[in-house]
């Protein structure tokens, strides 16, 4: 079976958020479909896929290693998040096609599933969304009721963290006290019924992060993510040695080559690769298998659409060191709109079903094609 | 699809019944409720009955009724989370079963296993010859045998040069061994790769001298110059010699390899799929080695089914270098298989039309071979 064409779709369900998809067509009556959203830099990924397309047409769908090697590993300008994401989108769509061709879910090609459910943690702006309750504490209770065992929040106020703010990137001591108060309110509401996961977005430096980490200990947090900048190795080291909270990071480091140093240094407890920025599922499987040998858990990052979480679940399901899958709560209703059956989600987990071939989602073309994005240029900054 | 039966066959093919090559082959046959049967190899010398017991008594009873797709779960259960995990016996048993599971998956999908592991990188898999020199008693006979082997199509030869000089003191032994290497290099010309096996039999001093002497012989690698756990010796030699160092046939799984990939000593890792935990574990270990810029050249002193399994992984590996192949083992292709691998000019030719491992075992023939008790020591 050969690839005949690659098409791209930028779907904007609400005219605000852009989700980027790849469709790989073949010479048989089978196509593959996958998500490769890279926020802010979406147009670069589109160009990356255009670069790949002429070289991909005519290749066997099975020969993933060969072309990933050509366009990533042995590429003269290897890497970069945009190209990694372009490769990932095509690779995952190819896997979707292979699964459909062989009439099996993709996890059966990666070692088979360890469990029928892939546990997810609640992510996205749920703590600020009135539809989930009147206050962050009430909203957290709703998340627990939905079955999530992990609730992620970025508790620091976002006042200065806007690209056009005169004090851009400034976190004040008052903000830090507010963050502890915000986490405390959620902890008081949900107790130990789920873990609070702290998102740091690398906004604090070591001086601030160690202060916060010590405060967060009292809330028995599941992890403190990107407490310092993504590549502040010494910062992670000092935090890991001095604070009693598990540290997580890795969404902004890519592939085995980018992650190797994290594994070897041993200061993180949980790694968070984003499979849609790491050249796809096979590379991701290799990364997390390597992490397992270093006794690290992984919790894949995904702040994009439902399909990226579903694709990640194909790898998650096969690994003993899987921790939890990041899942944007709003993606449940969105998946029901853009896919014929929606994402199989229940009690805080993606459910796996051997009858769902490939990546397990069937696009609703009418919805997608009638909501194509009018503007693929997102606002820069956060 | 569910596993319904697991059977372990231990036998010695007459061909292997040779004091220099003696080994019982171990095949694991896994049946399913859909009529698909898979086969894997679990051969290991000096431990064959222990492996059979590990499969039959300690693993198989717990796998009946499980899905052959659940490779990860099986590996996690019988290796990673086993309180007494690891060791060559247990891992050979796991490898045999795991390989058979992939054979089933491939047959179910109608695809060669390499298509389920990322697809083939090249249309063929390069091999090197081992075992071509068993009858040789002098350097002249080595040269003659090397030329014959090249004539038969091989373009890469491995042998143990100190072997026939083992009665000499080490410092003289390595001088004679080096002469033997240069004699073969001169005879075969520059287009044949020469690979030096030492079976861990030298001291650091001997290895250092041997490596120095071989620097102009253009060898692809020097394998296990010292005992594999002589860590300090390997570190010194690895920093000193320009000859790439190979090793790893006695290191198992990702967990074993992680300990050595940062030492900067090994240029070529030689995992043996039959003791690594099987196809997926070997694939994942090779991927880990790739991130550390180490090539892999699988060790294989086992049978033809083990070879077929290794070929499936080799085919997909960007950092694959070359596959070991005992010349007698290649003859098993005709002897114990109904449908075998295609080998031409030193390469296995990959055939997309052959599902699973691409081999069909002739169980009627195998059942005619018996078990033979044996214990083989390393050359000294």
Structural description of this entry:
The complex is a heterodimer of chains A (382) and B (380). Chain A is an alpha/beta fold. Chain A has two domains: 3-103 and 366-370, Enolase-like, N-terminal domain (Enolase-like, domain 1), CATH 3.30.390; 108-364, TIM Barrel (Alpha-Beta Barrel). Chain A is 38% helix and 15% strand. In chain A, the strands form three sheets. In chain A, strands 5-6-7-8-9-10 form a six-stranded parallel sheet. In chain A, strands 11-4-13-12 form a four-stranded mixed sheet, covered by helices on one side. In chain A, strands 1-2-3 form a three-stranded antiparallel sheet. In chain A, β1 and β2 form a beta hairpin. In chain A, α1 (42-56) packs across α3 (81-102). Chain A is globular and about 60 Å long. By secondary structure, chain B is α/β, with parallel strands linked by helices. Chain B folds into two domains: 3-113, Enolase-like, domain 1 (2-Layer Sandwich), CATH 3.30.390; 115-356, Enolase-like C-terminal domain (TIM Barrel). Chain B contains 13 helices and 15 strands. Chain B has a six-stranded parallel sheet with strand order 5-6-7-8-9-10. In chain B, strands 11-4-14-13 form a four-stranded mixed sheet. A three-stranded antiparallel sheet of chain B has the order 1-2-3. In chain B, α2 packs antiparallel against α3 (88-109), α4 (139-151) runs parallel beside α5 and α5 (170-188) packs parallel to α6. The longest helix of chain B is centred in the first third of the chain and has 22 residues, at 88-109. Chains A and B meet through α2, α8 and α9 of A and α2, α8 and α10 of B.
